[in-house]
Amino acid sequence: MTSKYEQLTLATCEIARKAGKFMANERKNFNDSMVESKGMHDLVSYVDKASEKLIIEDLQKLLPESGFIAEEGTTDIHGERFNWVIDPLDGTTNFVQGVPVYAVSIGLLDSDELVLGVVYEVGRDECFYAWKDGGAYLNGHSIRVSKRSDIHDSLLATGFPYSDFSRMDEYMEFLKWTMKNARGVRRLGSAATDLAYVACGRFDAFWEYDLKPWDVAAGIVIIKEAGGIITDYSGGNNFLFGKEIVATNGLIDELILEKISDFNSDQRL
After folding, report:
1. What is the DSSP letter of 235?
2. In this structure, are 125 and 225 located in the same domain?
3. Are residues 168 and 57 in the same domain?
4. Taking a C-beta distance cutoff of 8 angstroms, is the pair 246, 230 a contact?
5. What are 108's strand-pairing partners?
6. What is the pLDDT along the chain (269 residues), one digit of tens a residue?
7. CATH code assigned at 117
8. Same domain, residue pair 119 and 166
9. Global confidence as pTM
10. How far apart are CA 189 and CA 87, in angstroms?
11. What's the domain range around 127?
12. Are residues 35 and 134 in the same domain?
């Protein structure tokens, strides 16, 4: 029997694809004069805002009683039970520069629980999606996290701090450790894409701090349903609003959390 969450997820995939098509078309004639700054190294354009409006309009039709937690703040509607968590264009700097790694990220909170997630990576036309107890998928095919258990065989991903440098020393020490011990480290510039890639086994782990709920909400659901593990830096559950996340295949999470803790402790001494 098709669940309500499954129906909502599949409909959300189409909404994300529609927004992605809009972005791709707008990118053809895009230039730097169309960019605004929200803060240091934090860019936004009319494409982000217009995409968010398109997504919200369609989601309101899909689930009229829902509210929204959205990056560009184009609406302040709050739902009593359902709230969509939206990043209309995750990877704005990539989009502005013409680097083809950016995504639409849409998650749904049912009360305090994330119950579905959709990440549409525009450049590769790849739609990653999952719903509670339904598994995780990429363009209709089931996906799972990797089975790599040795850090030396693992490819990791991260995001560089761009405005909050208060934890830079700890970050750099851990980054150096990963560079010496992992197969490699990648920085794509889109946290939603990074999380989706962990879910399908392209990456074995991802970590970053100073992230917002809309950066990670969809990816959290997809990774969990793909068999992965999500925590904050302390191994706890404060990863949606806590501004830090560690996502792994569930086989190298203990080592990564141990090393993150070690380097954070060293800086406090």
Report:
1. S
2. no
3. no
4. yes
5. 84, 116
6. 468 999 999 999 999 999 999 999 999 988 777 777 766 555 678 888 999 999 999 999 999 999 999 877 767 789 899 999 999 999 999 999 999 999 999 999 999 999 999 999 999 999 999 999 999 999 999 999 999 999 999 999 999 887 788 888 999 999 999 999 999 999 999 999 999 999 999 999 999 999 999 999 999 999 999 999 999 999 999 999 999 999 999 999 999 999 999 987 655 43
7. 3.30.540.10
8. no
9. 0.93
10. 14
11. 4-142
12. yes
From residue 205, alpha-carbon distances to 125, 230, 260 in Å are: 23, 10, 13
Cα distance between residue 134 and residue 25, in whole Å = 33
Q: Based on the fold, state whether residues 32 and 125 are members of the same structural domain.
A: yes
Q: Please check whether residues 126 and 194 belong to one and the same domain.
A: no
d(CA 132, CA 135): 7
Nearest to 58 by CA among 118, 101, 138: 118
End-of-domain residue from the set 142, 173, 203:
142
Are β-strands 136-138 and 141-142 bridged in parallel, bridged antiparallel, or unpaired? antiparallel
The candidate with the shortest Cα–Cα distance to 125, out of 37, 38, 23, is: 23
The CATH number linked to 185 is 3.40.190.80
